[in-house]
Amino acid sequence: MNTKQAPTHPLTQHINLDEPLDLSCYKEAGGYDGFKAAISQPSDTVLSILKDSNLRGRGGAGFPTGLKWSFVPPRDDSGSDRYLVVNGDEMEPGAFKDRWLLEGAPHQLIEGLLIAAHTISATVGYIFLRNEYSLAADRIQKSLDECYEAGLLGKNILGSSLCFDIHIHTSAGRYICGEETALINSLEGKRANPRSKPPFPQVAGLWGKPTIVNNVETFFNLPNIILYGAEWYQSLGRHKDAGTKIYGVSGRVNKPGLWELPMGTPIREIIEVHAGGMCDGYKLRGYQPGGGSTDFLLPEHLDTPMDYNEIGAIGSRMGTGTIIVLDDKNCPVDMVLNLVSFFAQESCGWCTPCREGLPSATYILQQIENGKGKLEDLDYLLDIVEMVAPGNTFCALAPGAAEPLQSGLKFFRDDFEQHIKDQCCPYH
Amino acid sequence: MGNSSQAIQASIIQTDKRQIHACLTEGIRNEINHLLDHYPQASGASIDALKIVQNHYGWVSDDAINALAIHMQLPVSDLESVATFYNLIFRKPVGKILLHPCNGISCMLMGYRDFFGAIQQSLNISDGETTQNNHFTLISLPCLGACDKAPVMLKTGSGQEDKLFTNLQPSMVDHIIAELEQKKNKPRQGGDIK
């Protein structure tokens, strides 16, 4: 346990968007102390700290990180490669948190990767970035170069037995690359079709080798967890889940943006205090709590703490933690249409329900929005929701598309029916 | 088939190979070879290699795919299947400047449609099209990850510095286009639109 004052904002304490800290400044601010603390302990101990911390994956699914890592088979003597992958393919509609971290503090990402490399004995790390994040790619590359020069990457890092290389992979588009197994196929230079599980990537991932894929924000959590311990990390949360979280709000609010807040901060506080509430003349109709693939929630849910279980209990998902606000001047049918057509476009086409179901849903939603809908269309949309339910496809893309569709039909049913009755969109 | 015609056939293939190989300049090959070191199998560098070619020529031609297949010792069909899957690999020529207005949900809620209508009108093209003078190609992209500054638009293009335009209004279109036209031919260094 470190005796230094623990940071109140462990994810963003080093963020500087104008000019991220270089290696010497980052070290001066306590950077790489977490890695040094990790490497001075056996990997099992580091894994226990991580498990005890209750850190949950920040990509959207919220799977416990320590548990995920514990599925990696024990190291054998074959010397065969084991991979770490940073999922920086941020493309969830309404999500913009990873860009902030990547552009603002690239060294903290690298430090997180080094801790993970020590823990699971990884040999190579890939930072998978979406094509559009070119500024992040430049900044990370600069930081990687500094690390190689300083002996923080490469062979026998800081005199230890750890040998670890990191490469940046910039993608060429497609939302599906953010799906864990599709990302692995993409890194192998294939079409980004998801893989059927099992085997899970922890056992047979990239090129058939043990592979851990985690979100950018997950890696950002690691240095301070190791430095200040599981108990400290748990104490940061305001509700049941541990740590802090990057929350964001976009839409017609006064101050759209991103904030690092205690896990479990109520939705109302995020929207009304941090985002400054709705813009003058606009009322809150509803919102998606964690990006485009999460179920709509209503103003009546505002006092719910934003953590995985609480948001789950009221029928949505924490997802990326970036809230999209629907105001009373935008058409809910149009919003659902935008989201479903996005998922239809981004379907990789591998599984039939997704490939066929989402374009059908898009077509029907277009008909309704354009004043050509029929009442029975609403039943057909619900049939599609059922058709793309989890388990019917390899990955979560289609079930994710169904979330705003089914909750939109539930909460904004009157709007759908009015479009059909009046044969026009009342908002345009 | 007789021996002589076999020899002719072989020499044609040889010539084709040489011609095809010529579209990979030494600089491109060096860049690709450097990336091959990052992956245990050559296929891992496929997407990077396609992007390197695209960076150089602006798009990826059939000849370039054939050349890459030879250089990387990969089946043409593998590279082709990758090139057609990823939407930012262009298999047709595009304009010098690519404009990607974001059509993600936050931008839509904040007025993407009005801005998009204005830019289509100003350039006199629809989504996915290139202006007659080949200066601009317009391709909407989903969520660019800048939702707090919606609506946004990304400017890219081979040899171009990326730039993100934020908090867009339809009235800003003409100014943006005029500035881009003016600075289009400036070299990459310092050529960014401020």
Describe the SSE topology.
The complex is a heterodimer of chains A (428) and B (194).
Chain A: H1 23-28, H2 33-39, H3 43-53, H4 65-70, E1 83-88, H5 97-104, H6 106-120, E2 124-129, H7 134-149, E3 165-170, H8 180-187, E4 211-215, H9 216-236, E5 244-250, E6 257-262, H10 267-274, E7 284-288, H11 308-313, E8 322-327, H12 332-346, H13 352-369, H14 375-387, H15 397-411, H16 413-422
Parallel strand pairs in A: 1-2, 1-4, 2-3, 5-8
Antiparallel strand pairs in A: 5-6, 7-8
Helix pairs in contact in A: 2-6, 2-9, 3-6, 3-9, 5-7, 6-9, 12-13, 12-15, 13-14, 14-15
Chain B: H1 3-22, H2 26-36, H3 46-57, H4 62-72, H5 76-85, E1 97-101, H6 105-109, H7 112-123, E2 136-138, E3 153-156, E4 163-165, H8 173-183
Parallel strand pairs in B: 1-2
Antiparallel strand pairs in B: 1-3, 3-4
Helix pairs in contact in B: 1-4, 2-3, 3-4
Outline the structure in words.
The complex is a heterodimer of chains A (428) and B (194). Chain A has 428 residues and is α/β, with parallel strands linked by helices. Chain A has three domains: 23-236, NADH-ubiquinone oxidoreductase 51kDa subunit (Rossmann fold); 248-327, Ubiquitin-like (UB roll), CATH 3.10.20.600; 332-422, Up-down Bundle (de novo design (two linked rop proteins)), CATH 1.20.1440. Helix content of chain A is 43%, strand content 11%. Chain A contains 16 helices and eight strands. The radius of gyration of chain A is 22 Å and the shape is globular. The mean pLDDT of chain A is 96. By secondary structure, chain B is of the alpha+beta class. Chain B has two domains: 3-85; 97-183, Glutaredoxin. Chain B is 47% helix and 8% strand. Chain B contains eight helices and four strands, in the order H-H-H-H-H-E-H-H-E-E-E-H. Chain B has helices spanning 3-22, 26-36, 46-57, 62-72, 76-85, 105-109, 112-123, 173-183; strands spanning 97-101, 136-138, 153-156, 163-165. In chain B, helix 2 packs antiparallel against helix 3 and helix 3 (46-57) packs across helix 4 (62-72). The longest helix of chain B is centred in the N-terminal third of the chain and has 20 residues, at 3-22. Chain B is elongated. At the A-B interface, strand 3, strand 5, strand 8 and helix 12 of A face helix 3, helix 5 and helix 6 of B.
